[in-house]
């Protein structure tokens, strides 16, 4: 059954920050892993989680850059991980498991957008590989450390742009970087649906989130003129109305990782620190969730495809 998508009245909203949703929550002694937790939304989430007392593991494609970004934060650790490289994912996962520690929260946040058509690994489309398959392999590899954990998959209203292209997921034909991003963000949402179904017996719950629209290094491949034309920035380069700060953008993922209100809503798609409503249109700034991002049959099918591709599926 698809998760029920109706706002539950969390008391938080689009303007809430990650600190707001963590007020009164003590994460001392809790271990959190957040991919890309050294840039944009991930960095804002790491800061808030550390302030709430958590120990935060930050796997990083560029460990030197990550160490610099996190230099002033206590209780953080950086380790090398390239989500586009399965060998790197496995090596990171195995090293973490050897440490004997458990994880209370995993936030699959790292992502790329508007990449040129440059397949990675065994010919995989790069958005699908980094945004979804790398996280799929990582979470499955870390499975022994995840009993009772919350896993948050950072999706996007970009999922409006494409369902899973079952007949051509790697864009052998007709590459379009927005469709590729959109497919990967649908995959992020479906990953949460099926992971929650498989993990529930073990106390593991998974959620997908749309953070909102936020100017971060994610847009670095989009020319200034296109950002202007899309209405993302004003003529003087400031974020357009309706855009969030990184601290507001990090709030929904942190809320999904910690809110007791979500205990009965495993697999759900969240936005503005609440469950998202079904999308009623195609305006990505308004958001909501499309049916193809929640479909349990698609979620199970994507799981099988991802397991075949990565040879990782500890959850079954
Ligand atoms: N900003 C928005 O408006 C928005 C809206 C909806 C959804 N999102 C989602 O929010 C998430 C965070 O985005 P952001 O805006 O914070 O962007 P960001 O600042 O560019 O952060 C993305 C992070 O992903 C990491 N990453 C990229 N490729 C990687 C790889 N192969 N292996 C490991 N890590 C890799 C980046 O590391 P490097 O810097 O070393 O490359 C960076 O730390 C993404 O999943 C994005 O799709 C963002």
Mean pLDDT: 96
Taking all Cα atoms into account, the compactness measure Rg is 18 Å
The CATH topology annotation reads as Rossmann fold
**Total of DSSP H or I helical runs spanning 4+ residues:** 10
Q: How much strand?
A: 5-15%
Task: List the domain count as a whole number.
Answer: 1
In helices, the fraction of residues equals: 25-40%
- The CATH class turns out to be Alpha Beta
CATH architecture: 3-Layer(aba) Sandwich
The poorly predicted ranges are none
Taking the sheet with the most strands, its summary is: 8 strands, mixed
List the helices and strands and how they pair.
Elements: H1 18-22, E1 31-34, H2 40-51, E2 55-60, H3 63-69, E3 76-80, H4 86-98, E4 105-108, H5 126-141, E5 150-154, H6 177-199, E6 205-210, H7 224-230, H8 246-249, H9 251-258, E7 269-271, E8 274-275, H10 296-310
Parallel strand pairs: 1-2, 1-4, 2-3, 4-5, 5-6, 6-7
Antiparallel strand pairs: 7-8
Helix pairs in contact: 4-5, 5-6, 5-10, 6-10
Bound molecules: NADP nicotinamide-adenine-dinucleotide phosphate.
NADP nicotinamide-adenine-dinucleotide phosphate binds at residues 35-36, 38-42, 61-62, 65, 81-84, 109-113, 130, 154, 156, 210-211, 213-214, 216-218.
Account of the 3D structure:
The chain is of the alpha/beta class. It has one domain (18-310): Rossmann fold, CATH 3.40.50. Helix content is 35%, strand content 11%. It is globular, with a radius of gyration of 18 Å. The chain starts with 17 loop residues before the first helix and ends in a 6-residue tail after the last helix. Bound molecules: NADP nicotinamide-adenine-dinucleotide phosphate.
